[in-house]
Structures are given as C-alpha cells and as structure tokens.
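> forwarded from #structure-qc
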C-alpha cells in the first residue's frame, strides 16, 4: 500500500504514531531551516514538516516540490505548536523522515482551491483538475450520499429499481430528441430517452406496482443554469394510486432528504397552490414563496384615465417593495433597464413612491391624481416608505415579466436566502396549451397525462379549460420535479391523441406498443420524477447544476475538455450510409 492513513484522518490522539501519507502537494512554505508542505487527498489536508536539523538532504529535496506533485511521505505525528483551527487535522503535523515523488506535475492553469483564480471556461477545459477542488468534491460527495439515501428510502417503501433502455424510439412531442443512427438498420435511428415515461408505464402493466430508477435522460434543448443536455432524474411510478397517494409518498421522500442532509424537519404538509393562482399571484408556475411581494391587479383602478398605455392593456399589475420609497432615480432607471432586457421583454416600468411624509411621487403623476395613486397603494397594501412597481400589457406576458422583476427585487433586498427552504406543490395545471403559430393544442406535460375526472365532459366542448391531474413540487423558485396520474383507459387515450392532432395511424406508429399493452389490463397508475441534479444543487446552495455533475457541458452543449461534439471519420459515415449536407452559415 502507498499509504496507511489519509490526509484528513489524523488527530491529536495519533501523536507518536509513524504514518505514511500519499497525495498531492497543495502548497509549500519555507521558514528558516524548515519547509512546510501541505499534502492533500480526497479526505483532507495534512501539514508535513521537513527540518534541516533532522535531515538536511531530505529538506533540500522537499524544496524542489511543486504544486500538484504526487508524493508519498513517511514520518511521525506530533502536536502542532501553531494550530490551524480551520482544518480537522489542524492540531497535528507529520515530521518527515522520508518521502518519494510518485509523479511530477506541470504548473496547473489555476489554483486548486475553493476560491480559485480560474474562470468557468478554463475550469471546464481542465475539469479533471477542477474536480480536485474541495468545494467540488463536497458537491459530488453530497450527490453520492443523497443517491444512497434515496435508494434506501424507496426500498423501504416497497419500490424496485429497474433499469430501462437508453436506445429507444423517437417520439414527436416535447423537446427535441438526440438521435443515434443504426449501423445494422441503415436509414433508421434510435433516440436517447427524454425520460423513461413509456417504459415505466409498461412496467405498471407488467405488475411491478412500485418502480423507481435514478435515470439518465437526454433533451436537445437550449441550456441554462438548471439544464444540461444529459441529466439525472429520480424516476418513479406507482399502480393503484390517485394523485393524493403520489403526493404523500414523494413529499415524504423530500422531507426525509431535507432531514438527512440539512437537519431541517418539515413537520407540516407542504403548501399547495393551483396553477391559476400561482400565475395570478406570482406570474410563475414555480413560485419562490420565501418572500411575499405578491401581485396586485390594478386594472380596474388604472383604466379610463386617458393614459393609452394602460387603457389599451389587458392587465395592469403591481408589486410592493417594502421600504424602498427612497430609491434614487438611478436605481429606478436600473430597474427599468432590467425589465427592458431581451430576457424580460417589457417596454417600460411604472413606479409610485409613497414617501415617509405622506407625499406621493410617480412616473405617471400627470395622468393620475394623488388620490387615485393613493387608491392604488391602498389596494396593494403599500404603506409610507414603500415603492409600488407596476407593469401593463397582455395578461400572461405581463405576469411573466413582473415575475422576473419580483425575483430581481427579492435578490436586491436579500429576501432569497439560500439557507431558507420553502417547498410547495403546484396542482391543477391545464391539460393543454394552445400554440398560435400552428393553431392547435399541445399537451402541457405529455400525451399520457390524465384529465381531471370532473373535466372529461369538456374535452371536446371547452378543451382549453380542461385541467390535468398533474402536480409539480417546487423549492425556492425551482421546479424540483413533477408528475401526473396517467391515462390507463385505451378509449380515453385514443380521444387524447385525436385532440392533439394524431391520426389513428400516426398514433399507432408512435405509441402502438403502449396502446397494445393497455388492451391487456392496465391498472390505474401515476408517478413523478424529481430532478436529481437540481435537488443536489439546491441543498448545496448552488445557482447552477454544473458543479454537481462530474463532467458537465457548457452553455453551448459542448464538453470543452474532450472537445465534443466533434466530426466523425468519413469511414464511419459510410458504414452508417449517411451523407452530410453543407452547413449553412
């Protein structure tokens, strides 16, 4: 063995022992006739001392060590005279009486420390070095522990972990598929699964009434902080259940993991809000409820005063920023520029300041009297010292724009504390969403989501108002996961396909194997999938899921470390019988 202890293991009780360590050189410091070398491995850091008075030759050799050299050190553990309370091994050091360089290292392109000097692109290019940083290692250790605890919990609840295929059939709904050409079947393609949806439903037909899988999934969609082209979800399905059964089961799992990881004990049921209320109160189907600042509809009060921007709008809605009446003109201009950014897309921002002395200042003061603006404040619950921020326009678009402003104000006012967690369920989603461009309905979730039983009579008469038996769990403004009760009746599934514009032939072509399975006694079933990467990142206090994934892609979907995606040889294209068209510039 190259070592008999790790670099994070030694304590004062080990004083007097002779040990052998192996690891990487974190840093070296020369002080008089002594050289101090910090040796690091996955478990921690130990200070090793080379002393001229004990072994001059050994000390001089140690002076040649560079950062990230791989070394083996032997020596005696002693109590440190100058202790370091910031590391677990800070009460001891190892007095070296021998060492060996196992491998040399070039100077790394950035410091291997929590507060590194490496930018994102550089760290992703040298990800194998970035993974040595303690903060990244802690994220992966958290991921590992959560995965084991999730498996333990679900096993205790009677779930079986069953793997499903990675090479599957491409389906037309949802995000774009990643496709894989088949050499043995020229001109035909597999797809990588966006989720194990169809297979977990087949498992229910097969009688495996409680299935789960920590599953790899793939979606070819534009990336952001909480998206990667390949990601991991905790995928689950249950038979003979209704919506309440699924919610109770997985609320239990989420509570268990919060207790296990953060020692937070949620004793009360998570709040529930309908999709309609979430959109009207927060402008989002994944609201952050760590703070208030709920929307107030001012349409009736604001219309009819000769201000065309408001008079012509479908909705006028505002939020109150408590204690912000003192915002300067520069700060208001910053907020206006924020909402005008392409990511938000608003044309402008109305503000009303309710000053501490009772006076009112507003960007629309020439259109509204003080009494009228005071009525706005009364409806919104604004008090002296508060700032009312108002947006106006088409209803759904304006709510989404105001949501972005609400979150920005939450950040500016320090209301989005990463150590505070506010889970909730969003229920009663619409079953369908209308697309103006194609002039047809699409499934808001997927074609197998069951309509609310009360709304089934409206499927053909008032399609847009039909609610889904669907539910999302949201934590701190992030959709942690979602699911639904599935359609298990073949006739209802046929009707769903018809409403989504599938001909019987096309439905059978895409989903025939599932439809055939339903002919053989499909049980009532439903499920849920939690975003595993997102769950870990929330509990780690991160803004992106990249640092809980060992080898992530950048925002362009590229792995800059191994330079993929990349062209393939012509011989491979010929073997697959593929020809590439010239790329349009």
């Amino acid at each position: 063995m190259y070592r008999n202890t790790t670099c994070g293991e030694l304590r004062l009780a080990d004083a007097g022992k002779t040990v052998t360590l192996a690891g990487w050189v974190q840093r070296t410091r020369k002080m008089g006739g002594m050289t101090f070398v910090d040796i690091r491995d996955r478990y921690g850091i130990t200070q090793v001392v080379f002393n001229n008075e004990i072994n001059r030759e050994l000390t001089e050799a140690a002076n040649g060590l560079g950062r990230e050299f791989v070394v083996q050190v032997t020596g005696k553990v002693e109590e440190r005279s100058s202790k370091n309370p910031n590391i677990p091994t800070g009460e001891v050091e190892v007095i070296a009486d021998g060492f060996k360089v196992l491998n040399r290292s070039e100077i790394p392109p950035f410091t291997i420390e929590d507060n590194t000097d490496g930018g994102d692109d550089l760290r992703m290019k040298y990800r194998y070095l970035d993974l040595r940083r303690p903060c990244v290692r802690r994220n992966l250790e958290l991921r590992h522990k959560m995965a084991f605890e999730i498996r333990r919990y679900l096993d205790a609840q009677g779930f079986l972990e069953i793997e499903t295929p990675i090479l599957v059939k491409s389906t037309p709904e949802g995000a774009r598929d990643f496709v894989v050409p088949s050499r043995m079947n020229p001109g035909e393609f597999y797809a990588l699964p966006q989720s194990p949806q169809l297979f977990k439903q087949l498992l229910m037909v097969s009688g495996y009434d409680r299935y789960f899988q920590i599953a790899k999934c793939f979606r070819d969609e534009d990336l952001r902080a909480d998206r990667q082209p390949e990601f991991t979800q905790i995928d689950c399905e249950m038979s003979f259940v209704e919506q309440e059964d699924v919610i109770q089961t997985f609320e239990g799992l989420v509570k268990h993991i919060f207790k296990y990881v953060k020692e937070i004990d949620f004793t009360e049921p998570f709040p529930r809000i309908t999709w309609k209320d979430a959109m009207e109160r927060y402008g989002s189907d994944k609201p952050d409820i760590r703070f208030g600042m709920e929307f107030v509809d001012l349409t009736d009060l604001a219309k009819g005063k000769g201000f065309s921007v408001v008079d012509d709008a479908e909705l006028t809605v505002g939020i109150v920023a408590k204690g912000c009446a003192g915002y300067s003109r520069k700060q208001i201009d910053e907020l206006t520029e924020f909402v005008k950014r392409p990511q938000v897309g608003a044309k402008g921002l109305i503000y009303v300041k309710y000053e501490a002395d009772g006076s009112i200042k507003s960007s629309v003061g020439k259109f509204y009297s003080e009494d009228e603006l005071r009525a706005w404040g009364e409806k919104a619950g604004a008090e002296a010292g508060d700032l009312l921020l108002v947006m106006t326009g088409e209803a759904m678009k304006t709510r989404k724009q105001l949501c972005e402003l609400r979150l920005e104000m939450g950040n500016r006012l320090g209301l989005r504390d990463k150590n505070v967690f506010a889970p909730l369920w969003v229920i009663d989603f619409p079953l369908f969403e209308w697309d103006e461009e194609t002039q047809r309905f699409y499934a808001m979730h997927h074609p197998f989501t069951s309509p609310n039983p009360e709304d089934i009579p409206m499927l053909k008469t008032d399609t847009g108002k039909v609610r889904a038996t669907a539910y999302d769990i949201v934590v701190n403004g992030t959709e942690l996961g979602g699911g639904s009760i599935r359609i298990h009746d073949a006739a209802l599934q046929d009707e769903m396909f018809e409403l989504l514009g599938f001909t019987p032939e096309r439905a059978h072509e895409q989903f025939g194997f599932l439809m055939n399975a339903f002919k053989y006694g499909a049980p009532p079933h439903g499920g849920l999938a939690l975003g595993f990467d997102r769950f870990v990142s929330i509990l780690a206090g991160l803004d992106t899921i990249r640092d809980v994934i060992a080898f992530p892609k950048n925002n362009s979907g590229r792995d800059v470390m191994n330079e993929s995606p990349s062209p393939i040889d012509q011989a491979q294209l010929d073997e697959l019988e593929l020809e590439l068209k010239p790329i349009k510039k």
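QC bot note: Residues 367 and 513 are 63 Å apart (CA to CA). The chain is about 30% helix and 25% strand.
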